[in-house]
Amino acid sequence: MQFFGGSEISPSPQVPTASGNNAHMMYVFNRNGVCLLYKEWNRPLHTLNPQQDHKLMFGLLFSLKSLTAKMDPVNADKGNLGVPQLPGQGCSFHSFRTNTYKLSFMETPSGIKIILVTHPKTGDLRESLKYIYGLYVEYVVKNPIYNPGSPIKSELFNTALDQYVRSIS
């Protein structure tokens, strides 16, 4: 695709045809910014090492949450830009879309943040993120040998998550 002066703009990716191609990657962070889970399904380009990638994603979420709270037209008490807010406090965002991906976000009252990056034409994923959180509670939180705050290594959770994410269209 060409822009006015002939400069190139990256085209939108092709719409996935097979199931399972909509999801690119998923992150699960705890309230302290520790990445508990990172999964990839369809990520064609790797530009950063995983630790940098996780820090950038958490920083993006922190900044977007802070910005949406500051721009809230309803709440008069906006606080300072950059000051952390409690989950559910103030204005929040659920997703944003670019020409190459859509980022969907959910934060639980306990501070768990679930981020799913998908194809830009994917619809509203709020219910899907709630379902994924339900899987997390069922297979990770209720697991007596899971140590809260440590990386998620449950095979049952990974299998159920994989099956569910591949069904998202």
Brief summary:
The protein has three helices and five strands, in the order E-E-H-E-E-E-H-H. The protein is α+β, with helices and mostly antiparallel strands and 169 residues long.
Summarize the structure in words:
Mean pLDDT is 78; it is low at 1-20. The protein has helices at 50-70, 126-141, 155-167, and strands at 23-29, 35-40, 95-97, 102-107, 113-118. The chain is built from 3 helices and 5 strands; from the N terminus they run ββαβββαα. It starts with 22 loop residues before the first strand and ends with a helix. A hairpin with a 5-residue loop joins strand 1 and strand 2. Helix 2 runs antiparallel to helix 3 (155-167). With 169 residues, the chain is of the alpha+beta class.
* Tally of helical segments: 3
As a percent range, the share of strand residues is 15-25%
Tell me the strand order in the biggest sheet: 2-1-5-4-3
Structural shape: globular
User: Mind describing the biggest β-sheet?
Assistant: 5 strands, antiparallel
**Mean pLDDT rating:** 78
Helix content: 25-40%
Rg, Cα atoms, Å = 17 Å
User: Low-confidence segments, ≥5 residues, pLDDT <50?
Assistant: 1-20
Structural class, from secondary structure content?
A: alpha+beta
Order of helices and strands: EEHEEEHH
- Head-to-tail CA distance between termini: 26 Å
| Total DSSP E strands | 5
